[in-house]
Design brief:
479 residues, Aspartate Aminotransferase, domain 2, seven-stranded mixed sheet, four-stranded antiparallel sheet, 46% helix, binds pyridoxal-5'-phosphate
Length: 479
């Protein structure tokens, strides 16, 4: 036996197992066909079944015990097992009666995009290795910037979500305020750097401040009015006091669509204040930014075009699948200053173009394709109809609940409705618990101006007026 044959014999038994990772073409097609059909039937069952998970966590953990990965198992069996776990073991955010957090039923083009991205698996770190993919993402970002009304060219990039985009804004604002931040971190500032966001802003800011090294105390949570909008007066007062105390303010965050109530901070006033004292203005429009699609609703965000940077999540109102945010800015130089690095092993270092030197991520998935295909297939008119539909259904819910004697305590322009039950009803947590226990719908509890409210947000493009009326009835009955 020569050495070559010995080598072949030694590796032969492994071949079959490796084939599980890279099956023959025909088998792949068969499994993909199976998957397409199985997913379609699961989606049908999900949309008419319970919204809430049926499996307990204990059941899920005990089912998982069987997987010790000691020996290979047939893929089809694994796929069937997994789909069943997801069908019965998650909150169905794709359900038409899920009136929950900003998690949409993903658009179909976005799901197609995921398949394509997984197949070609382009590495979007660099424009040299993936010129087409990097260009497609940059094209979408420019188009979104144009739609926001940014003057001149927009730069920016896709992110894992709103949190990463907000994190990017913070790094840019710090770098803008003090170029020595790049080398020295928070020590570069003459006093503690601080920034301003409303008390109803997204709490990721707290983690972001911690992670960046400026510390959680750097977040100044500014008072809001009864509707959840940041008070410009409170902002001015706090800013002046901080400057007096030797702190170094560097950024104002206006939230355009708060999570609890869809409130829009006074963007133009924030702009004016930021300009007076030379601060970065970031607009966090992770959810609310969706209205740029609608000429009728876009005016709600007036002033957003004057922001230094904007966060907009495609995986919220734009209905891209999970993990698709955007960071947009007018200041290419700041982004380059914040993220540049020279890596000798990378194929190119085109400062302005390569995502690995203009953003926080390095290896990068082609998530922007989800929005490119969705926008391409629906056009802006399709998206306008999509967001207007949500807003109309939110208005319908508000109307129905008023009919049952409930009060609407927020402005539901961004499809978020905050509701207070009539006097003599059960407390809000009991009402929501009963609705969830029925499995027939999902709504959540939120706190607005110190009071518990039922929060319902229309996030699903396939929710119908009949769904809304059924949910209104459920809520009224549970009160
Ligand atoms: C959702 C949201 C975030 C966080 O975004 P993720 O995509 O969950 O990381 C930040 N700000 C606002 C206003 C949001 O709605």
């Amino acid at each position: 036996m020569d050495t070559q044959n010995q080598w072949l014999l030694a590796t032969e038994p492994q071949q079959e197992e490796v084939l599980a990772l890279f099956p023959e073409r025909r088998e792949r097609v068969a499994i993909q066909d199976f998957l397409t059909t199985a997913l379609d039937s699961a989606e049908r069952r999900v949309s008419s079944g319970p919204v809430t998970p049926e499996l307990s966590r204990a059941q899920i953990h005990s089912d998982l015990e069987q997987f010790d990965f000691a020996a290979p198992r047939p893929l089809e069996e694994l796929l069937t097992w997994t789909m069943s776990q997801l069908e019965h073991g998650v909150m169905h955010v794709t359900h038409p009666r899920y009136l929950g957090l900003f998690n949409p039923a993903p658009s179909f083009p976005s799901q197609c995009a995921d398949r394509i991205a997984a197949s070609f698996n382009p590495q979007l770190a660099s424009a040299t290795t993936s010129p087409a993919a990097v260009a497609i993402e940059a094209h979408v970002i420019r188009e979104i910037g144009r739609r926001l009304g940014f003057p001149g060219a927009t730069t920016g990039h896709f992110t894992s979500g709103g949190s990463e985009a907000n994190d990017t804004a913070l790094v840019c604002a710090l770098t803008h305020a003090e170029p020595a931040f790049a080398q020295l971190g928070a020590r570069a500032f003459a006093g503690p750097p601080v920034f301003y966001a409303s008390q109803d802003s997204h709490l990721a800011w707290i983690k972001i401040a911690h992670r960046s090294g400026i510390g959680r105390d750097a977040v100044r949570l500014v008072q809001t009015d009864g509707g959840g909008r940041m008070s410009a007066d409170a902002l001015r007062t706090r800013l002046a006091a901080d400057r007096e105390a030797g702190c170094v303010p560097f950024m104002i965050v206006a939230t355009a669509g708060t999570t609890n109530a869809g409130a829009i901070d006074p963007i133009s006033e924030c702009r004016a204040i930021a300009r007076e004292v030379g601060l970065w203005l970031h607009v966090d429009a992770a959810w609310g930014g969706g209205v740029i699609a609608s000429p009728r609703l876009a005016g709600l965000l007036r002033g957003i075009e004057t922001a230094d940077s904007v966060t907009l999540d495609a995986h919220k109102w734009f209905a891209a699948s999970m993990g698709c945010g955007m960071f947009l800015t007018r200041w290419q130089d700041i982004v380059a200053a914040a993220f540049h690095v020279a890596a000798s092993y990378m194929p190119s270092q085109e400062r302005a173009v390569d995502p690995y030197v203009t953003s926080a991520q390095w290896s990068r998935r082609f998530v922007g394709l989800r929005l490119f295909l969705s926008l391409g297939a629906a056009g802006w008119p399709g998206y306008a109809a999509h967001v207007e539909h949500s807003v109309e259904l939110a208005a319908l819910l508000a109307h129905e609940m008023r009919g049952y004697g409930w009060r609407v305590v927020n402005d539901p322009s961004l499809a978020v409705v905050c509701l207070v039950p009539p006097a003599g009803a059960r407390p809000v947590p009991g009402i929501v618990a009963e609705v969830l226990a029925s499995g027939k719908a999902f709504v959540s509890i939120s706190v607005l101006a110190g009071r518990s409210v039922v929060r319902a947000c229309v996030v699903n493009g396939e929710t119908s007026p009949a769904d809304i009326r059924a949910i209104a009835r459920l809520l009224a009955d549970a009160a």
